[in-house]
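Q: What does the predicted 3D structure of Histidinol dehydrogenase look like?
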Amino acid sequence: MLLKLLSDPRAAAPLLVAIENRTESPKLQEVRFTVDSIIERVKREGDKALRDYTERFDGVAINELRVPPEALERAWQLTPAPLQQALQLANERIRAFHLQQLPNNLEINGPYGETLKRRWRPVHRAGLYVPGGRASYPSTVLMNAIPALVAGVKQRVMVTPPGADGEINQTVLAAAHLAGIDEIYRVGGAQAIAALAFGTESIAQVDVITGPGNLYVTLAKKAVFGRVGIDSLAGPSEVLIIADDSADPVLVAADLLAQAEHDPLAAAILLTTSPQLAQAVPLEVERQLENHPRKELTSASIRDWGLVVLCNSIEEAAELSDRFAPEHLELQVKDPEALADRIQQAGAIFLGKYTPEAAGDYLAGPNHTLPTSGTARFSGALSVETFMHHTSLIGFNQRALQATGPAIMELAASEGLHSHRESVRLRLEINP
């Protein structure tokens, strides 16, 4: 059996830790060195480095890095009507959900007439990374572009690796057209992140970079953080399913495979209280893999990072899930809402048998760019706020400073900051 079964939940905790840390390897330092060298070369050589790396890593020579804006309109026109309608539905639902995320400016009037405000503004320019390689991801275009659009970002630039023909996938371009992006560059990998962070002759520097990618992209985002903002450090995708005896093994197996087919490092985990389900799901996974079009990749994921744990109770399953803090958590149990209330740490929770994770991936509305590798303990999904920043505004009048000045002076003196204290004292001595 490809899918490992543990009948002792006490043995699951260290395995879950190993799965969470699955990108850590002896080669990680070597990858970091490669990423750092790519970033430095892009900083020195700009577009030349981008073209060289695209030929080296993607196997294609690129003359013009930018995709002509008219190619997006053409891609949309060439998109079959059913797919156009699906993209439009996704666009509408994602936009409607993210419109509700717009933060409100805050204004408080203090007791002495002072005003205290927090004001939100969009960043000027956002860089959106859309992965390529094994597959094309028009859904990622929408999930990154729409929050930026809703936030009010005026300049939204997308980077994505070209195919073997040097072109960008037609549906990816169609999604970009629908989402209002017209600045797109045929470049991916760490070199694309470096270009967004530092700028080149063709690509102007951005303020924030979002979007998932491979290990090289993730480490590049980590390296440039501070120069620009980033959304998160996305690792390989993962799903954890909590299921009781009401769950259908066919649906559970399908959902595990749906995650596994992303990447050989994707993780697919089932925690169940049902011995029958624990036995049936591995068999069903094998059956559904027989004629799977991505069998080799998906099998590797299931073999290396798949796990079934037989738990003594739903409470025990919930505790194990919170330790793992999964990116995607499916609750295929009799009362999913009640169980969801007890879950403290998950990127997104999918309630009940009719809510496959695929619904969230494509068009439910909430963002599908989620924290991975345990980072759901302290972070959440990509949101409108990712593309915004807030500024504090403080306005004291004379009465407010007279009322609070002695306390400010005491605090400044306690820190040994003479001029801080003086800046208040001198104002208090001014006659009205």
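A (community wiki): The structure tokens above were generated from the sequence. The chain has a mean pLDDT of 95. DSSP finds 17 helices and 14 strands in the chain.
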